[in-house]
Design brief:
The structure holds two protein chains of two kinds.
Chain A: E1 8-12, H1 19-26, E2 33-36, E3 48-52, E4 59-61, E5 74-76, E6 79-80, H2 91-94, E7 100-103, H3 106-119, E8 125-128, H4 139-142, H5 144-153, E9 158-164, E10 181-186, H6 190-196, H7 203-215, E11 219-227, H8 233-247, E12 253-260, E13 262-263, H9 267-274, E14 285-287, E15 293-295, H10 297-312, E16 320-322, H11 327-333, H12 341-358
Parallel strand pairs in A: 1-2, 1-3, 3-7, 5-8, 8-9, 9-10, 10-11, 11-12, 12-16
Antiparallel strand pairs in A: 4-5, 6-7, 13-15, 14-15
Chain B: E1 8-13, H1 33-42, E2 48-53, E3 58-63, H2 65-73, E4 78-84, H3 91-103, H4 110-123, H5 128-138, H6 145-153, H7 159-167, H8 172-177, H9 183-193, H10 200-217, H11 221-225, H12 228-235, H13 241-256, H14 258-272, E5 281-283, E6 294-296, H15 302-316, H16 319-327
Parallel strand pairs in B: 2-4
Antiparallel strand pairs in B: 1-4, 2-3, 5-6
Helix pairs in contact in B: 1-2, 4-6, 10-13, 12-13, 13-14, 14-16
The chains are: A alpha/beta, B alpha+beta.
Chain lengths: ~350, ~325
């Protein structure tokens, strides 16, 4: 896949001389750079890159979805917005600009996370960076993964998850991670990658990257999210699951999440406008209990049940969870129901301990 | 600023008035039958405003377009007018005179508002901020850029669509939906919709669902409407207008949401077979999504309440209710 390259760069003056800033702009020779007092005041044309300082908190609880079970996950945001521009991306609805922001005060983030972890030693944290942007899409430019993975390798009560749709794992392969980082891929059939995720890595490249990470000792995560229905979806998903297990040893998969396509109602118009050829909003959606559009329950159950059955052909002991689903959906597809978010969190911890104890 | 506008009251020769020149005009739909009757009955009460075009030896209409057309149809040869020299009135001023004369006596329709905003934006090059803060409120439109953009888009619609919007008093949100279709699809839609009297919500539902079907199946509106069920409904003269609309809405919805409607239908059929008491009602979770069903019943005394309780118990013990509840999960 092609490396991200902006058309214009805006840099917040207060971070202009930082080593990280200089390192980032050194990768973009020939691109005009503008220095500004506060990038947030700039409108920024499409395909602009902002480099600045995150003044707020880096770590947040995953917002999840009200009235559905969530997994008590934490997120840290070193990026704001994503260059991959998938058609269904929810960021189109709630980030009101089209430019990508890189925060360069990584040390502040590490201090913040470090403080939280040391103050709450009894709590085990699962923390991901892929909420407001792909974890690795900009890693070739920032090389943040090296710093963060090394940091988490020293933590006892946390596990980092890097979620990606790319194959950009070059920075990950030669560093000591101490199994405290899970590298995860969001996977969809090739047809959907071409039509809805055209700037991401093709399936084959993602799987090769996953295999490289597994060989480097990382546990892996697989996210079938968003699962999208279209004519022939069953065959395509069955096929990609078969291919996943041709590349990856199931023993090294920490978790597998399933989540069907869901979106805030306002995203429909954005998708229609930006991706007129996309058919994804023409599924049988209803307004769910969290106010987001989602497939009707019967369709969701059908998808989850089939995907789980395909996975179990290759993996006898998968840890599969549903993202933002109801208790009754859990019961009917996974076979048990978490009582609440905390209950699910406990199951995650058990899974993590089991795999960490077993070793890679 | 002086409120006095010069001008010369005179009787202007009608043949010199250029009715093709619409620089100041934004009227859409020129139904002049009422004004013709009025002129026939009591004569022209209000002079029209004209601007001289010496180079062409003609007049431009500033205001009174319909009155001029009516007088032409009535074979009048001259018309009372206030005539301005060309250099007395710049084009924007002429347009604003017409605009203010109209909005002081009537509301502009959606298409006329769109024409006005289009002229201000593209023809008279008025500053966008001035349009938003000054002219949108004047036209009873919320003053923001989004609303300006939406109104400007309507200009792209074909006259037949604009006519439908004006005749049916279609609100902006629905009018904009027509822009989601191709030109050919819009024309097909208008000829389909013309014979139906459809409320705002139903129209939005129909347009949204047809659009989705077209995208999903990569077909045209014509192909969507070629559905035999729709054709049968449309050609059935025994159906009343509202029934026809309701049936059309549900037929298109069934096409758009086949599984959803199928599940609802199965549940309703099952519930109808439960032999419930009069006034008793079981409702499935909204959008088939939640876990909880609802039961409603009415009673006037303890005896009726007891009957209801016994009936609920008997329904709860039936296999049928279990099957009905299970239907929520079946594709």
């Amino acid at each position: 896949m092609r490396q991200y390259r902006p058309e214009k760069i805006y840099i917040e003056r207060s971070v202009a001389d930082k080593e990280t800033t200089l390192q980032i702009i050194s990768k973009f020779a020939g691109i005009p750079v503008h220095y500004v007092d506060d990038p947030r005041n700039e409108h920024g044309e499409k395909n602009s890159l902002f480099i600045g300082k995150n003044m707020g908190s880096f770590i947040k609880r995953c917002p999840g979805a009200r009235n559905y079970i969530c997994c008590n996950y934490y997120i840290i945001n070193l990026y704001n917005n994503c260059p991959l521009e998938c058609s269904y991306c929810i960021l189109q609805d709630y980030i009101n600009n089209s430019f990508v922001t890189i925060y360069v005060n990584v040390e502040d983030m590490l201090n913040e996370v470090g403080n939280i972890l040391s103050k709450n030693k009894e709590t085990f944290y699962r923390i991901g960076t892929g909420e407001l942007g792909d974890s690795l899409a900009l890693d070739g430019i920032t090389e943040y993964s090296r710093t963060i993975i090394s940091f988490f390798a020293r933590q006892k009560n946390a596990l980092l998850e890097l979620k990606t749709k790319t194959d950009m794992v070059g920075n990950l392969l030669d560093i000591e991670h101490n199994s405290r980082t899970v590298v995860s891929w969001s996977i969809n059939p090739e047809k959907l990658i071409k039509e809805e995720e055209p700037k991401t890595a093709p399936l084959e490249q993602r799987l090769i990257a996953a295999r490289l990470c597994q060989r480097a000792g990382y546990f892996l995560g697989i996210h079938f999210d968003p699962l999208i229905v279209y004519p022939g979806w069953e065959d395509d998903y069955r096929d990609i699951i078969m291919r996943i297990y041709q590349y990856i040893d199931p023993k090294g998969i920490m978790w597998i999440s399933l989540g069907t396509l869901r979106y805030p109602p306002g995203l429909r118009a954005v998708i229609r406008d930006r991706f007129p050829e996309s058919r994804i909003v023409t599924g049988e959606f209803i307004n769910g209990n969290d106010g987001k559009m989602r497939y009707i329950k019967a369709i969701r159950k059908d998808i989850y049940s089939k995907i789980i059955s395909y996975i179990k052909r290759y993996d006898s002991d998968p840890f599969i969870y549903l993202c933002m689903e109801s208790k009754d959906m859990w019961q009917r597809t996974i076979g048990w129901r978490p009582e609440d978010d905390y209950d699910l969190d406990v199951k995650f911890q058990q899974r993590v301990r089991k795999l960490l104890n077993r070793g890679r | 600023m002086s409120m006095y506008i010069p001008g010369n009251f005179t009787s202007a020769a009608i043949h010199k008035i250029d009715t093709e020149d619409r620089e100041f005009i934004f009227a859409f739909q020129t139904d002049i039958s009422a004004i013709k009757k009025s002129i026939e009955a009591v004569g022209l009460l209000l002079p029209v405003l004209l601007r001289k075009r010496p180079a062409e030896d003609s007049y431009q209409i500033i205001s009174g377009f319909k009155r001029v057309l009516a007088c032409i149809e009535l074979k009048m040869t001259s018309i009372d007018a206030c005539v301005f020299e060309e250099d007395e009135i710049d084009p924007l001023k002429g347009f604003l005179m017409n605009l203010h004369e109209n909005i002081s006596v009537r509301s502009l329709n959606l298409v006329e508002k769109s024409i006005c905003l289009s002229k201000l934006t593209y023809r008279f090059k008025v500053d966008r901020c001035e349009i938003i803060t000054g002219y949108l409120p004047l036209l009873n439109i919320q003053p923001n850029d989004n609303m300006l953009v939406k109104h400007l888009k309507l200009i792209e619609l074909e006259d037949a669509v604009k006519k439908y919007i004006v005749d049916r008093d279609i609100p902006l949100v629905n009018a904009l939906k027509f822009l989601d279709f191709s030109r050919a699809d819009r024309i097909t839609l208008i000829s389909f919709l013309a014979s139906l009297k459809i409320g705002t919500n139903h129209l939005r539902q129909i347009l949204t669902n047809i659009e989705d079907i077209c995208i999903r199946d990569r077909i045209t509106v014509k192909e969507v409407l070629d559905n035999p069920s729709i054709r049968n409904i449309m050609s059935n003269d025994r159906l009343s207008g509202p029934v026809k609309v309701k049936m059309i809405v549900s037929t298109i919805e069934r096409d758009r949401y086949p599984k959803f409607t199928d599940i609802k239908q199965k549940i309703n059929e099952g519930l109808n077979g439960l032999d419930m008491l009069h006034g008793m009602k079981i409702t499935y979770p909204p959008s088939l999504e939640g876990e909880k069903w609802k039961i409603e019943a009415q009673f006037k005394d303890s005896k009726e309440l007891k009957n209801i309780g016994e009936k609920i118990v008997s329904i709860a013990e039936k296999d049928e209710i279990k099957d009905i509840i299970e239907t929520l999960w079946e594709t």
